[in-house]
Amino acid sequence: MQSAYRPIRIGLLGAGSVGSQVAKLLIENQSELAKRVGAELSLTGIAVRDLKSKRDAELPAELFTTDAESVILGSDIVIELIGGIEPAKTWVMQALNSGADVITANKALIAACGPELFALADQLGAQLYFEAAVAGAIPIIRPLRESLAGDRIDRVMGIVNGTTNFILDRMESTGADFDEALAEATALGYAEADPTADIEGFDAASKAAILASLAFHSEVPVEKVHREGITSVTAMQIETAKQAGYAVKLLAICERVESGGLVARVHPTLIPLEHPLAAVRGAYNAVFVEAQSAGRLMFYGAGAGGPETASAILGDLVSAAKRHLAGGPGLADSTHANLEALPVQFVNTRFQITLEVRDKAGVLAKIASVFAGHGVSVETVQQSVAPNNAALLTIMTHVASERDLEAVVAALEADDSVVLVASVIRVEGL
Ligand code: HSE
Fold this sequence. Notes:
The protein is α/β, with parallel strands linked by helices and 430 residues long.
């Protein structure tokens, strides 16, 4: 294709499973992409740490270098796919300072340093794109930033970590306990050798911070995201949930709260089996958005994977390249609403509490009075027999505040008719 424009130079930092696919697709689809953009996209260099590492795709050897700076300084658009904070942050800043636009899939970097990087990009008239940073292939950043920019979003609930969704799904479908399901996830390559970031909810918390800041036009530091992982989810909790008509999911929930601020939280959550998020199985991701005018929307798909994540990167690349040709400012980061990110105690929700209690006269009334005494209304109570003259009570509350529920749990733990508070889990999506 003849174009009035010189080729746009693309530099790639990192050639792991996503980077290799980005390079492969960029080369394979060069002429089609050129037609969509209106100029050729020329991959000019790929910076890697080790030239000898095995790649997921066959790529021209002459593109590879260990000199990241030469790739950055020789590019109009830099794609950062190395992950982690450093040296990614330094290189992204160097790229922006050199006049390049930047595309990244780095959720940790955007969640931790987003405001600083967006301010720098804004000051330089450059753009920072990050569609692949949340939920891999699923378009969710652009819908929040653009398609829904005229609406008011009240809530975003997402399954944004495929590894934990796979583990919880296996626990549900096979009755496995957490360790067995984690071992299976590791054997199948879903979980990394060190799975901490996934199973302790750090990965989902970074994504929650990004989603909350976009949905509510506010700065949401990742440290303000309430985080609980899935390591203490038991086979018993999953079975109890299933019998009551619920699935256990690790959800990232970002919402406006009554006091006027926002709360972002990540924790295992019960959702009714009829809720669309309950149907998200295996390592898939989904983001459920509740907006004032648009109503309920769900975005579903692959949250990770080389070609899948490369699709989101290439979408950003076409946008960045078009802006490069058209000039003018891109989308500014919008934090104008400036809502305060509040602690989880500001949330009102329902809870399911499972207790092992002594099975004798008056215990049920005593337990009920603990709930009533803290203003927490009970919706249902189910009792079953447990060993050693104990009974298992599964109690579902009406909507209650976190503060009141914390007080109930403390009182139950101190009560001599309670053998064990076996589980406290929040319930959403009713
Ligand atoms: N480790 C993430 C997950 C994928 O399991 O979903 C990348 O964000």
